[in-house]
Amino acid sequence: MKGGISAKAGGAGGAKRGGLEALRQNVLAFPILAWFGLFVGIPMVYVVVVSFLTRDDLGNIVWQFTLDNYRRIADPVYLRIFANSFLLAFLTGVVTLLVGYPVAYTTARLEPKRRNLAIGLIILPFWISSLLRTYGWVILLGNWGIINNVLTALGLIDQPLQLMYKFGTTLVGTAYMLIPFMIIAIYNSVDKLDKSLLEASYDLGAGRWQTFFKIVLPLTIPGIAGGFTLVFIPALGLYFISDLLGGGQTVFLGNLIHTLVNRGRNRPLAAAFSVGMIVMVILVVAICSRVTRSKREGFLL
Amino acid sequence: MKKSNYITMGILLIAVLVFIVMTSTRDKGEEINLMTWGGDFIPRVIIDEFTKETGIKVNYKEVTSNEDMQSLLEANPDQYDLAVVTDYMVDILRQNGMLEKLDKSKVPNVKNVNPVYQGNYYDPNNEYSIPYAVSTSFLLVNPEAVAALGAHPITSYKDLWQPELKNKIVLIDWSVEIIGLVLKSLGYEYNETDPVKVAQAKEKLFELKPNIVRFETNTPEDSLVNGEAVVGFMYSNQAVKGQAANPKLQPVFPEEGFPIYIDSWVMSKQAPHKDAAYKFLNFILQPETAARIAEMTKFTSPNKAAEPYLSDEFRNNPMLNLPDEVAENTSFYIGVEKVLEEYEHIYSEFKLR
Amino acid sequence: MKARVNRWQIIYLSVFFVVLYLPVLSVILYSFNANASTAKWTGWTLDWYRQLFNDRVIGQAFVISIEVAVLTAIVSAVLGTAAAVISLSLTERMKKAVQWVMLLPLLVPEVALGVSLLMFFNALRLPFGHLTLVLSHSLFCVPYVYVMVRLRLAEIDREIIESARDLGATKWQAIRTIVLPLVMPSIITSALLAIAMSLDDVVISTYMSGPRATTLPVHIFSMMRVGVTPKVNALCTLILLGTFLIIGLNQFVNIKSKPKGVV
User: Fold this and answer.
1) Percent of chain A at pLDDT above 70?
2) ipTM computed for the complex
3) Domains and CATH numbers, chain A
4) What whole-number distance in Å separates Cα of residue C189 and Cα of residue C146?
5) CB contact, 8 Å: C212 with chain B?
């Protein structure tokens, strides 16, 4: 039977053919949904439920329904924290995209042996503890760090550059930590491009940039969307980078939730913030998919 | 993919599985499961000596916070014997009924514990905990650098607000500590609930913001060592490391008062190896052992009998060996739960300025 | 196909690699720092390497982490690829459902995942250790495999599969000989990423490891309270060396073999 095409046909004509046909088609999905639904559903339900509860002085959860936690979130201070985190995550996505796209594109067009080496070299640093690599940035960017020392030795500056403890520093650290996801996502998208399309475009007289913007970019939008999602979501939750590189000067969602769960002993409020974070992500991903909706599928909802 | 690749992957997988089976530890012989921070907080050397002497294996699970230990203990109380937790957590665990009432007859060396560190709020009758390490927090100052900035010498919290110290202060990143510091500078007590006093503290706190270059809980002494800060509020073991790296750094014990923390041993009510655990506690409380532990971990030892065994250098350094009179004037952060939410909110607002 | 990679692109790529490896080089450099903290450089020493070799604990933690990471990568690769391939032949609505379910593990905060799985696995009386670690790690690694494989699967020429089917191949045969080789690069790169993520996980690993096991990242993070020593830098330098050797060997073997193209 025709496996792939009947997916589309089944979609359109599914209503006509009835639930049984759809069921037969979807039967393989159920184990997946069951497995992940169970393992991830439970934490999700736990978070949502706890966000409506309260706690006693010792920090133990008290089974008493309340909207207090959500009321507390709707407060200018906390809303600013949401905005900060959104900004950081969004900018991280943008930065990793701008920096990572050319890397992915170039790598995909290398010869196969060089290509594998390049991919390996891109992923390799991420096997080293992220904490240590963030300390590595501290060593590089500090007032008495390597960059300042080199620039001073070369006589290019008199005073050390104040590179640390700024929003930009946290952005650099976060983007650095998440860029392989963007690169690999785009790489997978670019790599499967039909090269004959590009050849045809050049043969028809289009320049390199034209070909890029009219053909390559549109075709790799799924890769961009996938990469952006895989970067945006973790960027919302990371906190030790802003502690180390940002000097703890700004509060992000990750810091807040972490503090509330641990020393704050306030799991319900932390859960409410987590729900807020989840809602924000769902909105962003949904908008992302609407904006980039195309007739072709890829990773998009 | 080539067949050879499948075979390689298959061999790799089998090798890993075999390796796992071979190296997985079985419960043979006596052992105890203890849980606390890493970084050699309980020196491995000492643990190895215990194992050599008694044949009891020690499983040391490392965690990153008191709350981790609470979660793990509450989920699996029958899998852990001992844990070292900070005083407030002893209080919580005790009230939650997680702790075993210690049978002192099995730990005769408990008589070595300094009475100054006993009978406190979290364990008034000393039934549930045995102190392990004592630390405080205070100011670490670089007097030369402070003078070079044109500021008055720092002798108390009040001095931190000098405008000459702009961007030169490093603080531990915890709302209760920082607001506590401000409260003390105003002459109030820790964890104040009076709204008028809290509002005052909030205003004073906001004024401090420009002076702070960094918030850092783990290694604040680094900022003093590399010069980006000239004064810092940090824990005693961190201050010790700072001074070791730069002998010019001096501790300042503020006259308004400063906090104390006691990390203590507790035993799970459903501990699986109670007798072995008691043996371990008794071993740790031996005077010489306790002295060596203190020297290695750089915390004050709550073991009075250990004092003669301390090196002169250790004994005479108030950061390392807190004198009893000084200890009696320190305060715990009691009543945190009443103020936590409000303090956290103030602190968030403070950071966003 | 001619590789049209010009000089500017190579320069950009090279600059990128330099910046990518700068922090890594700092890590390596400071493994030789005589001072225990990164605040100051006080001279060269091999002491940390000596200490590393005598440290059974960090060695044990490292071994556990590698075992868990490799198993996680394999499990995630299988599950993620299966989900991606299966989602090809689903109805539109089911496809969306699967995609959202695949994204869910990334949405939930790690601490919630850790605590709730702790309670759940407890209720199931599962032994805490390698099993629970691999199960929980693969939860957050599968989405990455799924996304990467899905990216490559999109637009797979259905006609190829059609022809294979018409020539008598079963669905499984078509998948094995056509689809899988095509997505293999995605599977491998995302498996490598899975290893990286598993080796770095702290929060979930704290809850999922038993009383006897501590994983490497937890060991490192739990050191933070008293300061991370360059011993860890030494370990990371050795890990890097090891993987460089493997990559080098791989390249060497490849040069000897006939050029085969895709992976």
Assistant:
1) 89
2) 0.89
3) 74-291 (1.10.3720.10)
4) 12
5) yes
